[in-house]
Amino acid sequence: MNAVTVKHPLAALLATLAAGALFGFGLSLAGMVRPEVVLSFLRLQDWGLMLVMGGAVLVVLLAYQGAPRLLARPLLGGNFGQHPSVWNRDTWRGAALFGLGWGLCGVCPGPAIAGLGTGDLDLLWALAGIALGALAQGLRAKG
Amino acid sequence: MDAFTQMASALLNTLFPTGWGHYLAGGLLVGTGTALLFVYTGRIGGMSSVFSSTWSWLVRRPYFQTARYLETRGWRLVYAAGLIVGALVWWLGFSDGVPLSTQVPAWQLLLGGFFVGYGARLSNGCTSGHGICGLGSLQLPSLGAVLIFMATAFLTANAFARLSARFT
């Protein structure tokens, strides 16, 4: 992730908040904040999650590929960031662990946060687990 | 209805017993949020990083004090707050207003969450980081990560469902 210097801090704050709100509203509308819905997908009883992922990737693909071609820089200044992912042992081990946990609880990071806005305080357990997992990973990591 | 329409609707009902429109609409909105963040600020909005970047306020270890967390921790928290606001708007305006809850036991949420947090940060991405931002960036390693976590999640969820059916 590149450092991004933004020229309009207040506008960027509001845009970031609004973008997050769309994300959270979408997750809630799609039922992804309910672990039961995610688990029903993972047990092949309801394929809805494919539509959620597919719809989201489609829009993001257009934006990530199109915006840097059409605009010199982001609308509020700064630079377009990138998501450079690498393939190494950590990538696949981490992904496998992530899937293990996701299959056990039906909660991933976005819904764990957004779900709090639906009054579901049970999700605090998942949120605490994710925060502790991220802490443990950082404590074990080098550098 | 002709035979084709009947078959198509039977297929839709089998794949999506609770309907499909809200899934697609929700996914398009999730994508729109991530896309707007990028178009306005150039930021790549994966979700799992917010946990590590927030620890950077509390934990002095060099890993948490790297630029990628220090320089992004402010906006990542704002983005996360936005998620809660958006879900709140849905809850107050578009649901029956009863707080949601889950039948998944607390120990499962906590333990599963731990692996989710550890694994996502080790892999440098989650369902949104690799799944949405990574695939949207046409990153092959992200596709690999998605296929692997989908596979282990399918295996875990189904194995666990069978086990708990046997012991309850």
Automatic annotation (TrEMBL), chain A:
Keyword annotations from UniProtKB, A to Z: Membrane, Transmembrane, Transmembrane helix
Entry protein name: YeeE/YedE family protein
Keyword presence, Transmembrane helix: yes
Entry-linked InterPro entries: DUF6691
Record Pfam families: DUF6691 (PF20398)
Transmembrane segments: 46-64, 95-117, 123-141
